[in-house]
Amino acid sequence: MKMNIELYLYEKYDKSALKILKLLDNNNIKFSAHTFYDEDIETISKGIGERIRRLPFVMIDGEKVGGYYDLFEYLVNKNIINYEGKSWPK
Predict the structure, then answer these.
(1) Residue pLDDT, tens place only, 5-62
(2) Is the pLDDT confidence value at 1 over 90?
(3) Alpha-carbon distance 7 to 30, whole Å?
(4) Exposure pattern of 57-69 as b/e (b: 16+ CB <10 Å)?
(5) What is the C-alpha separation between 17 and 20, in angstroms, rounded?
(6) Pick from 70, 63, 56, 1: which is nearest to 29 by CA?
(7) What pLDDT does 74 receive?
(8) pTM for this prediction
(9) Rounded to an integer, what distance in angstroms lies between the CA atom of residue 83 and that of residue 33?
(10) Which CA distances in Å does 40 have to 46, 57, 70, 82?
């Protein structure tokens, strides 16, 4: 399943950003990352085109997904990964 995954995060990773990166990397899921430095959340929201509350933030195929747990749930519901966070056998 081909998806356009966009990850928005701050330059300094927090636990949530690292969990997202690890989940995507461990399952060989391609994504693009957009890094922010000192911008406030209002400026970031305008740049993304979506009102967000915090980073990291994930969008898939233009759809607002959210943070780590939202991404995990999305990937499970789409049968891309299982509940252990591992990709399904191909």
Answers:
(1) 999 999 988 899 999 999 999 999 999 999 999 889 999 999 888 899 999 999 999 9
(2) no
(3) 11
(4) bbbbeeeebbbbe
(5) 5
(6) 1
(7) 95
(8) 0.86
(9) 25
(10) 10, 14, 23, 35
Whether the per-residue pLDDT at 84 is higher than 80: the answer is: no
Report the pLDDT value the prediction gives residue 69, as an integer from 0 to 100: 95
Give the integer Cα–Cα distance in Å for 10 and 43: 13
As given in the structure block, the two tokens for residue 82 are 């299982």
Distance in angstroms (rounded) separating the CA atoms of residues 29 and 1? 10
How many residues appear in the chain?
Answer: 90
The per-residue DSSP string of 15-71 comes to HHHHHHHHHHHHTT---EEEEESS--HHHHHHHHTS--SSSSEEEETTEEEESHHHH
Q: Enter the tokens of residue 2.
A: 């081909």
Look-up of token digits 């990964």: 81
> Across residues 59-88, what is the average pLDDT?
88
Instruction: Judge whether 32 and 6 are in contact, CB under 8 Å.
Output: yes
